[in-house]
Structure formats: C-alpha cells, structure tokens
Amino acid sequence: MLKTIIGREVLDHLKSARFQIALLITGILAVTTTLINVQDYAVRHQNYLDAQKELRSEGFEISVFREPQVLSVLARGKDRDFGDQARLSYMSVPSQLTGYMNVSRGRSRSLAQLAAIDFTFLVRVILSLFVVFLAYGAVSEEKANGTLRLAMANALPRDKLLLGKLLAGLVVVGGVLAFAALLSLLVIVLHPAVSFSTSDWVRAALILAGSALYLSLFYGLGLFVSVITDRPATSLLVLLQLWIVLVIIYPNLSVRAAEHVYPLPSEDVVLAQKQAVSERFQAAIQRANEGISRPSPTSTDRLQSLEAWSGEAVEMAKVDEEFGRRQSRQMRRAEVLSLLSPAAVYDQAANRLARTDIREYDRFMGGVRRLWDAFVGRYKLRITDPEAYKQTPLPDFSYRSDPTAEAVAATWPQWMLLVVINLVLFALAYTGFLRKDLR
Amino acid sequence: MATSQPILKADDLSKRYEDGILALDHLNLQVQPGEVYCLLGANGAGKTTTINLFLNFIPPTTGTCFINGIDVTKDPLEAKKYVAFVSENVMLYGNFTARQNLDFFAKLGGKTALAKNDYYQVMRRVSLQEKAFDQRVKNFSKGMRQKLGISIAIIKDAPAVLLDEPTAGLDPKAATEFLEIMAELKNEGKAILMSTHDIFRAKEIGDRVGIMKEGRLVMERTRQELQYEDLVKIYIDYMKSEPLAIS
Amino acid sequence: MFRTVFKKELLDQILSPKFLIVSLLCLGLVPASLLLNYASFESAFHEYDAAQKEAKATTTVYREPSVLSTFGIGLESILPKSVAFAKFSTDARGTQAQNEVLSNINGKLDFVVITSFLLGLFAVLYAGTLASGEKEAGTLKLILANPVKRSTVIAAKFLGGFSVLLIPFAVSTLLGALLLLLDGFPLFEAGNLARILSLLALSVLYLSALFSLGLLISTWTHRTSLALLASFFVWIFLTFIIPRTSEPIAGLIRRVPSEEVMTASRAQARHQIEKEKGKALAPLMDKYLNDKDRGTWDWDGYTKARGPVAKEFEERLGQTLQKFDEDYERARSARRALSLNISRLSPASAYTQAALNVCHTGIADLENFSRSLQAHYGQLFQVLFRYQFSDIFESEDGSSRRQMGGDSRPSGKIDYPKFRYVFPAYEDTLRAAAPDIILLVLFNLIFFAAAYFSFTRYDVR
C-alpha cells in the first residue's frame, strides 16, 4: 500500500510542469555557477602559484600569500573578500590582507558579480524555493480536487498516507539535489585546475548531506502548511511569505541587529589609539633615526632602530588585534541571532566546512603573526651576529588549518538543529493530518 | 398561462467555440412569465452554454437572446436588471456571513434600501437555519450554500430567474423545499429557466420540458402532454439513440 | 455600484489572513528599521561632528552624513567619511568602496528596501489572486449576472485590494515616524518633511504599479495557484534579476578598466614624467644640494632655481593626470548611466533610484559630492599645492633614488578654503528623479490599462 502511494506521488511530481521546469533551471544553474566559480578559483590559484615562485627574497620586506580554498568552488563564503597577500617588515605587523590578485587582470570583474552565486546559494535560495513549489499542494491541492477523499476511501490509515507523501517528496527533492550535485561535481572533476584531497571530498559530502537536510526541512514546512490550509492558493501564499522571511529578511535583519547591539569602535577611534601608540614611540624612533642617518651607524644604532620600530609595530598590532577580536565577537553574536533562520544555519555550517569563513582567516593571520616574530628575530641576528644570520634560513610560513574532525565537531550543533526542526515539522504535519477535516 | 411577451427568449441561437465545437445549434426557446421551463440533457448538450449566452458571459455566433425584450448583447447592463442567476456549486465569500453575502448581491442587484430583517426573512423562506444567518459561509455545507444562492436570486426580485443545476447534491428534503420555492416564484409571475439532470423533479415542477442533445433542442413537451407520455422513457431513448449528424 | 463592490473587496481582504500577515510584518519591520538606521546615522553624525571640530589637518574634508539615510541607506555606506587631499592624489577614507555602485544600493534593510522588496512582493502576490480567486469561488459569475460593468468591477477590486495594502503601510510608517520624532529626528527641519512626504508618494506610486501588474497576471489564468507562481517569478525578475544583472551587462558592453589597473597606469604615467623632471633638475641638484655635507645645502637657492625648470614638467604632469582622471570618470559615468538605464526596465529600480535621490543617498548625490570634491581640490591647489614640490632623482638603472620635497610658498598664514558641500536642493532632486517618476507613472498606466483590457475579455464561466 505504502509503495503504491509513494509510487503515484513520485510519478505525479515527475510529470508536473513545475518539476520539469525546476529541474531544467537547476541543471543550468548548477553547471554555470560551478563553472564560473571553478574558473575563478583556477585563476586565483594560478596567481598564488606564480606569486609563490617569487617569495624568496632577502630584502627588508617579504610577502606571504594566502592560498585560495579549493572548496570555495562550492561555498564561496568570504574566501574572495579576505584578500590574499600580506607584506611583512619589521616596521609593521600586517593586520589584514591586501589585494585581490584577480582584480589586476581586470577582466572578469563584471562576470564575477554574476558569479555571486555558488552551490550553497543554489541550495539555500533557489532549491528551497523549488521545494516550496513542489510541496505547497501536497495535501491542500488534493483536498481541493477531491482525490484526497478518494484515497481515504480505501483501507488506508491516515498516517500511512502522510508518510507516503513525505517519503515521496523526499525522494523527489533528493533527486533534484542529487542531480544538481552530480552536475556540479562533474564540472569540478573534469576541470584540470581543481583537485580535491580526501578530506576535501569528505567535507564536500558533508555539505551535500547538510543540503539534503536543509531542503527536507522546507519540504516538511510545505507539507505542514499544506495540511493546515484548505486551498492550495492559501498554502502557496503563506509559504511564500514564510520563505521570504526565513531565507531573506531574517538573516539580513539579524546582522543589522548584531551590528547595532554590539557595535564596533569607529575607524577614527582606532586611528586615535594608533596615534597614541605612535606618540609614545616617537621619541625612541626619532633617536633611532638620528643614529641611523649618521654617516656610519654602529650595530648598536641599528639594533636600537630595529627595536624601536618593531616595538611600535607590536603595540600597533595590539590595537588591531583588539579590534579584530571585537569584530569576531560581533560576527559570532550575529551567528547566534540568526539561528532562527535555517538558511543562515545552513550557510554558516557550509562555510565552516569549506574553510571560507572568518575562522580560517583568523588562523591564517595567526600564522602570519608567528612568522613576523620569527622574521624579526632573524633580522636581529643580521645586526648582532651576521655569521649566525647567514646560517639561519628564512622562516617558513605555516599555519594550522582547520582539521576535518574539528570542523565536523564544530558544525555538529547546527546540523542537529536542522534535524530537530525537520522532526518537529514532520510531527506537526503528522498530527495536523490525523485530525484534519477531509470533507 | 398568460400568453404575453416572453420574458426569456432565445432566437435562433448558435454558438461555435474557437476549437470548432458547435455547442448550440439554432436554439429557439421562450419562457413566459409564471412559467417554469426545465432544460434536460446530458453533459455537454448545451444547457450551460444556453445560460451563459443569456447572461452575456460569451457572445453568440448567430442569433439573439432577449431578456424582457432587451437584446443582451446590445444592452447587457439593462438586460441584467431583469434576471436573477443561481449558479451550480458556488463557494461565495467565505469570510463573510450569510447575511453579508446576501447584502452585497442585493445591492448589486439594485436593492439598496433593505433592512436586516428583510434578509432574515428571505433566508427563512429558503429554510436556512437561523443560527447560520450570521455565521461565516466558509463553514457551510453544500446544501446550505445552495440555499443561500437561491435566496440571493429571490431577493433581487427580478422577473426572470436562471438556474444551473439547482438540485445537484441536495438531499430529498432540501430538494422538496426547493421545489416549493420554485412554485411560489412561479405563482409570483416570474419566468424560470432551469437546467437540470433531475428528470423526476423536472417532471414535477416544469410547465414545459425541453431535451437537448448535442446542442439541439430535440424535443419539447408541455405538462399536459407529459401526463400521457413517460418522460423518463423518452429521455432515455433520446440519450441512447444515435448521435445526431454533425453540422 | 462601485461603492458596493469596493466595500466588499475591502472587507473581504481585511478579513483574510493576508492582511494580518502584512500588518504584522510592516509593524515589526518598518519602525524597527527606521530606529536602527537613525541610530546608525546618529553615531555617524557624531563622528563627523567630532572630526570636523578637531580637524587639525586642513587638507582633509569631512562629509556630512544625510539624516534621511534613516529612510534609505543607499550609497551612504560607500561614500567616504573623509577625503584627504594631497597634490595629485586624493585618499578617500571610511568607505567600504566597491567599484560597482548599483549593487550597493540593494540589500540593506531600510525603508526603501522594505517597500521595494517586501511590500512589492505582497503587492504583486495579493493582486495576483484578485481575478482568478473570485473566479474560483464562483462569485465572479454572480457579480456579472447583475447590471454592473466589468470596468467597475476591476476598478473597485483594484482600489479595494490596494487600500488593504496601504493601510498597514500607512500605519506602520506613521508609527515609525512618531517613534523617530520621540527619538529626536528633525522631522520639521531643513525640508525633511517635504522629502519624506515625497518618499511616501513615490512608494505609493511604486506599489500601485506592482499591484496593477499583479492584477494583470491574475487575468491571464483561471487558477489562483498558477497566478501566484507567475507573480512570484515576475517579482524575482523585477527586483533581483534586472537590477543585479544591469551592472555586469553594462560592464560587458562598456568596458572600463578596473580601479587597480587605472591606478597602476596613472602611477606609471606620473612616474615617467617625474623621472624626466628629475633628469632635468639633476644639474641644479648638483649645484645647490650636493650630497656630501648637508650643512652646506643652499635650499633657498635650489627652490628659486628649480621653479622655471620644473614648471613645464609639473604643468604637463597636472594635465596628464587630470586627463586620466577625467577620462576615467567619464567612462565610469557612461557605464553607470547605461547600467541605470538597463535597470530601469524594472519599476523597482526606478523607484529605488528616485527614492534614494530624495534621501540624499542616491547617484545624484554621489555625483554632487564628486563635483564638490573637485572644486575643493581646485581651491586647495591654488592656495597650497601649487607651491609644494617633490622632486625625484633616479639613476638610469633605477637602483638609487632620492627624493627632495619642499614648499615654495611665500610665508604667511595659509587661508584654507572651507569645504562647501551642500546637499542638492529639492528642485534639483526632483529634476534628477524626473525620469524615474515618469517611468513609474508610465508603468502604472501600462499595467493597469493592460489589466483592464485583459479583464474585459476574461472568461468568467
């Protein structure tokens, strides 16, 4: 009996015009956006490789380049926005990355705008909408055209009917998602510039699983609304409004609220703080400059200069770090506020898994800071012990990237939240259907 | 029966739809004041098309409809003053009460000065339960909505009444009540044109009965004639007979 | 007859859950966004005020934020908070500048966005159910069986349905304005009231255009769910696809080099001319400022002597850079205009442009500010920059480089020009917004006429 119901439901969906249109649009979008994102990544990655070649320099300044995240082809996050280059010298600790290497090529800035869509956007906005369109009439349309009564005129318990509808819907939604995922992955696998490591595959699989959870949530929501309303037009109207609030309005609003409730110090305040630091070190730096600009400065002079400048740099960095801490805190608070929106929850978890969120950036900057310390230490040797300096190689840049296990553990609560909401919606649809007036 | 001007008159009425189907083939029909005309026929025979033409919902291909002597295509607004319409299976305005629905349509029909009691009276007349008068229509059963529809037609107090399948889905008691109202309206001198499947009630209430088949009025009998003929047999014979030649 | 149908429509819509949902959303979002944005403005203004008062570096100017950004943030976030002038360069600070301007206009929750985006959606959706909903309920037949014209029916449905949308809009706006007033918003100063009222009028014009569109869609089909789907897609097309793609499309048609490329080329051109100047000045440097002993430098002599030699180079430099900047600005302007015109295919864009101009955060204000900056630079140049010089001497192979800077200004107090930035007057705003206003009126007429016409042929059976 259950199989019959599921079979008919699935067939009904497959034959409907809206499913076919949705499938077509999904296919086109999955391919085009992945292609654009992959090409964008390819260019960024090539730039990175090119830059790495010129990394070794003995000068007063060295550059560190950030490798673009390969999973940004699926979840862009902020990978493109964080910049990719840091210049270190003993005079300043870089507080943020500069430059976006792709931009100097100029060419695809316009297209890049169009490519603000990635796979997770496709799932979060477009597919969730399609799911709403597929689900809104699940029960209300059948009630309106009388087939619901016909179905119930058989030896069919209500819960089986609803279960059948639910499973059928999940099959169809899963099918569409799998279709999109397959096309995306095909593009990724076939493109020469992109290669996933094992852990990348694991993460991609997790993102996919999360996408399925997210979409099933919307199906459950659609089913629930379809159960409690009588006319499909009403279901659709209510669902569209819910969708707008959950996917678009609420995430936006919660960010604004977080900005307001946990404000960041203004740029001028930060500048003033840095000004204060500058004034404190002014005397020392002036003395150091006088020493250096003598016809033949001694090593003591040079050491003094190094320590004055690097001392100031450290204090300046503290100001920046404090600001960065507050910024991270604000972002985390915004994340908590936005938990009411499944779209935001999904987005955060996906970006975390793809290493395109701010945490990855923080780790990178931590590595930069450590490099700076080592760099300045080595530079000191140049003055105090030139022999040892020649022996000591340039410090290597490294930072501990987010290991997969840790990312999974960190995103676990978010996935669990989605699971819970799923279950609640199914339960509500279930109880609503059992008590529904089917006349 | 007074042989005055017919209030409802179809003159050589034909309707061919865009897809080529001939829904009505030279229909000639008249309904006098105080007369109930029952139009019988299978689905697609042309009954509803006839009513739609009278109400100017679609334009005729040839021929004319007259309501109270007015050509409905030339002066539809004037013609509609003289006809009341009861549609089949109407949802009405679910958010409004029965009285509010009645009030709205009464005003549309030109009766702008009615009081609450007038509405209550009409609803009582159609045997609608008292407690339903100020209840929202969305909770009404089909029978209740049907009765409300009839009361909408009654309150307009128009000389002609068009009904499309009025007894479909009514229980026997309600159907009997309905026939009583039709008899009352007929005695008030209204011309009533009713399309229906219900042979038995048609025989009971109809002063004249017409059978439509594939767009043509193939048979017409008066009440007297039907005393001597079995309408049921005639009807079934026509239904069973060969399809008419396609014109 | 009209009154009867109008009253029925009004009551029917108010009793439906749609009205409750719109009211809740409006009452929640509109006042909240107004208060939030006003708080943002206040802190921005506070910053500006403080910076202005203690402005030590008088080659830096500060931009006054617009109080009407409370209603429409628009370009407020990308216009710089301060601009520091130096010879041949300006440094804009405090902006999250992106090259593309239009894409910044959408996306931040303010009154304009709520209206164009959310209320626009509701307008189209609710109107989309009007004709087909009535038909599905079977009541359309009943109405038209009476002596009432189809034109009356559609006009009454339009006005009745639209009033229902207007009521939550009006109430929530009033509430928001009241709360703003209590919060200290200068409602009755500086022509703000006139602008806010204009903004409200524009909003109503826009919403009625979308409502007419929804009504038109409603007359295309007999099934309400289909009408809703179509309405939704149309809305996505108008509020997302057209505005977001107009800029990239314009960029593809009118290619403009990116900011980085332009800066690099400009720097290169400057470097080239300065190198040549350095070569010409090298003998003077040897004469007056020889390297060995700084104590014997004849700085005044150098300053005097360099004048006539450097003059032609500096003039050429000035002209070259000016041409660079003008050409670039012209190209960007042209692309921006093209992008604007493409996006005007959507009433949402027309509304947003006009609304933001009214709030002093639109493109007209961007251009106004740019012009003010240019004028101020010109004045600063006359008073200060033309006396400053910076000579760069580079060896042929580029390995050694010396830079000498100085000031040949006659001594005395510098009379720094005051930055004259005036918000555009109401008449100028209207002129700038005129094409959009006309477009909105046209949209209204076209959509309503089409809906009217379509409804007269609507199959009511």
Could you please describe the fold and organization of this structure?
Chain A has 439 residues and is mainly alpha-helical. Chain A folds into 2 domains: 2-16 and 117-176 and 195-259 and 414-434, no CATH class; 40-115 and 261-403, no CATH class. Chain A contains 15 helices and 2 strands. Chain A has helices at 2-15, 17-53, 109-114, 119-135, 140-145, 147-152, 158-190, 198-228, 232-261, 267-292, 299-337, 342-354, 358-384, 386-391, 404-434, and strands spanning 61-65, 85-89. In chain A, α1 packs across α7 and α11 packs antiparallel against α13 (358-384). Chain B is of the alpha/beta class. Chain B has a domain at 8-89 and 159-240: P-loop containing nucleotide triphosphate hydrolases (Rossmann fold, 3-Layer(aba) Sandwich). In chain B, the strands form 2 sheets. Chain B has a 6-stranded mixed beta sheet, with helices on both faces. Chain B has a 4-stranded antiparallel beta sheet with strand order 2-1-4-5. In chain B, α6 (172-187) links the parallel β7 and β8 (191-196). The longest helix of chain B has 16 residues, at 172-187. The two termini of chain B are 36 Å apart. The model of chain B has no long low-confidence stretch (mean pLDDT 88). Chain C has helices at 2-15, 17-53, 102-105, 111-128, 130-136, 139-144, 150-183, 192-218, 224-253, 259-288, 299-343, 347-358, 363-383, 426-456, and strands spanning 60-62, 82-86, 89-93, 388-394, 401-407. A 3-stranded antiparallel beta sheet of chain C has the order 1-2-3. Chain C has a two-stranded antiparallel sheet with strand order 4-5. In chain C, a hairpin with a 6-residue loop joins β4 and β5. The longest helix of chain C has 45 residues, at 299-343. The chains are: A mainly alpha (439), B alpha/beta (247), C mainly alpha (461).
Which key terms come to mind for this protein?
heterotrimer; A: 439 residues; mainly alpha; 2 domains; two-stranded antiparallel ribbon; 15 helices; B: 247 residues; alpha/beta; Rossmann fold; 4-stranded antiparallel beta sheet; 10 strands; 35% helix
Rg result of chain A: 28 Å
Find the count of extended strands of chain A (DSSP E, 2+ residues): 2
Number of extended strands of chain C: 5
Taking the sheet with the most strands of chain C, its summary is: 3 strands, antiparallel
Radius of gyration of chain C, rounded?
30 Å
Low-confidence stretches of chain C: 97-106
Helix coverage percent of chain A: over 70%
> What is the residue-mean pLDDT of chain C, rounded to a whole number?
86
Bulk shape of chain C: elongated
Strand order within the widest sheet of chain C?
1-2-3
CA distance, first residue to last residue of chain C: 22 Å
Along the chain, the helix and strand elements of chain A come as: HHEEHHHHHHHHHHHHH
- Give the biggest sheet of chain A: 2 strands, antiparallel
Q: Which chain pair shows the most residues in contact?
A: A-C, 34 and 47 residues
By DSSP (H or I, 4+ residues per run), the number of helices of chain C equals 14
**What structural category characterises the helix and strand content of chain C?**
mainly alpha
Number of domains of chain A: 2
What percentage of the residues of chain A does DSSP assign to strands (E)?
under 5%
Strand order of the largest sheet of chain A: 1-2
Distance between the termini of chain A: 23 Å
User: If helices are DSSP runs of H or I spanning 4 or more residues, what is the number of helices of chain A?
Assistant: 15
